Amino acid sequence: MNTSAAQTRPTHTGTDLADSAFLRACRGEPVPHTPVWFMRQAGRSLPEYRALREGVPMLESCTRPEQVVEITMQPVRRYGVDAAIFYSDIMVPLKAIGVDLDIVPGVGPVVAEPMRSLDDLAPLRPIEPGDVPYVIESIRGLTAELGGTPLIGFAGAPFTLASYLVEGGPSKDHAATKALMYGRPDVWHELLGRLATIAAGFLRIQVEAGASAVQLFDSWAGSLAPDDYDRYVRPHSEAVLAEVGTLGVPRIHFGVGTGELLGSMAAAGADVVGVDWRVPLAAGIDRVDGRPVQGNLDPSLVFAPWEIVAEKAAGILTAGQKAPGHIFNLGHGVLPRTDPDVLARLVDFVHTESARG
Ligand SMILES: Cc1c2[nH]c(c1CCC(=O)O)Cc1[nH]c(c(CCC(=O)O)c1C)Cc1[nH]c(c(CCC(=O)O)c1C)Cc1[nH]c(c(C)c1CCC(=O)O)C2
């Protein structure tokens, strides 16, 4: 177990990192215990995060390397998770190239001028390292501090980014996005093509700065029917994953409500596929063609009595043994009112239970 390891560990070599349970599981190799981390582990459920963010807008905090390093480290120290996820947001690269947007507390990303025509796409140019010096500085600081714990870099996938840009903000039905997709396929493919270039560029910057794995978040892809996903979206996500494939780090591909899309999301070029809690993990494993999986505890379960949490987690660990690799995670992000002590207990449970075999 590696609880509190980040504070006490001596300097680690690159070999230790490559040998970490998380990276071994991503490659489908045997592990001493099932690795675990939580999507949105860095954030609002931690009082030490809220204290640090006091008076600092979300997107500004992402440009301050000292804050980014500290916020990324907080859950690693508190929970003893097997991987850190870089504190940033899927909207950061768009903001960095000059798109007028903000993250409004309690709402999410809001875009000043929604993009619905070819002319609207003008701000969407490729991202360069010089656009995000704070990302590079933060990741360099983090890899030094993390030692043998891998850092996961991430980007929003073209569809999920497009949804915010076209709708102008969060949306339940993605109606304007789909209207553009069906009604103006020329604009649509230009938009997603540009977003693919940006996502791939942003992932490359993170890996070159020291990230050991990447996750492509297509959070809202589950709103699409499989044939539309394959026709309008998958080629663009495939382009991102293919470019990242040249960098030699594992690629995790994740979305919510993607039960019917899992096979396609795997075939798009994922090394590991994220499975949400609506799909039994055993069924998810059957759909991803022999790849390792990540997931899939319902994020709401942390509010249930501990015996129920333990029973569900044990079931997920058992199901996960059927995959060549399993990374324990929630099926989506940590909910804001989650008690950090429950997550700490869950990490211990996953480590102990899985080590017993
Ligand atoms: C869709 C999406 C976004 N951002 C992200 C996604 C994909 C993951 C998912 O499906 O949840 C990804 C993201 N956003 C954030 C991270 C940091 C790393 C982590 O701990 O996972 C990551 C990986 C920080 C954040 N991003 C945001 C916060 C909350 C800001 C705050 O504390 O004021 C954090 C810590 C804001 C944000 N950013 C976004 C939304 C919808 C919101 C509002 C909802 C919310 O508040 O949780 C867009």
Automatic annotation (TrEMBL):
<feature type="binding site">
    <location>
        <position position="332"/>
    </location>
    <ligand>
        <name>substrate</name>
    </ligand>
</feature>
<feature type="binding site">
    <location>
        <position position="164"/>
    </location>
    <ligand>
        <name>substrate</name>
    </ligand>
</feature>
<dbReference type="InterPro" id="IPR000257">
    <property type="entry name" value="Uroporphyrinogen_deCOase"/>
</dbReference>
<protein>
    <recommendedName>
        <fullName>Uroporphyrinogen decarboxylase</fullName>
        <ecNumber>4.1.1.37</ecNumber>
    </recommendedName>
</protein>
<keyword id="KW-0456">Lyase</keyword>
<comment type="pathway">
    <text>Porphyrin-containing compound metabolism; protoporphyrin-IX biosynthesis; coproporphyrinogen-III from 5-aminolevulinate: step 4/4.</text>
</comment>
<keyword id="KW-0210">Decarboxylase</keyword>
<feature type="domain" description="Uroporphyrinogen decarboxylase (URO-D)">
    <location>
        <begin position="35"/>
        <end position="44"/>
    </location>
</feature>
<comment type="similarity">
    <text>Belongs to the uroporphyrinogen decarboxylase family.</text>
</comment>
<feature type="site" description="Transition state stabilizer">
    <location>
        <position position="89"/>
    </location>
</feature>
<feature type="domain" description="Uroporphyrinogen decarboxylase (URO-D)">
    <location>
        <begin position="152"/>
        <end position="168"/>
    </location>
</feature>
<keyword id="KW-0627">Porphyrin biosynthesis</keyword>
<feature type="binding site">
    <location>
        <begin position="40"/>
        <end position="44"/>
    </location>
    <ligand>
        <name>substrate</name>
    </ligand>
</feature>
<dbReference type="GO" id="GO:0004853">
    <property type="term" value="F:uroporphyrinogen decarboxylase activity"/>
</dbReference>
<keyword id="KW-0963">Cytoplasm</keyword>
<feature type="binding site">
    <location>
        <position position="219"/>
    </location>
    <ligand>
        <name>substrate</name>
    </ligand>
</feature>
<dbReference type="GO" id="GO:0005829">
    <property type="term" value="C:cytosol"/>
</dbReference>
<dbReference type="InterPro" id="IPR006361">
    <property type="entry name" value="Uroporphyrinogen_deCO2ase_HemE"/>
</dbReference>
<dbReference type="GO" id="GO:0006782">
    <property type="term" value="P:protoporphyrinogen IX biosynthetic process"/>
</dbReference>
<feature type="binding site">
    <location>
        <position position="89"/>
    </location>
    <ligand>
        <name>substrate</name>
    </ligand>
</feature>
<dbReference type="InterPro" id="IPR038071">
    <property type="entry name" value="UROD/MetE-like_sf"/>
</dbReference>
<comment type="subunit">
    <text>Homodimer.</text>
</comment>
<dbReference type="Pfam" id="PF01208">
    <property type="entry name" value="URO-D"/>
</dbReference>
<comment type="function">
    <text>Catalyzes the decarboxylation of four acetate groups of uroporphyrinogen-III to yield coproporphyrinogen-III.</text>
</comment>
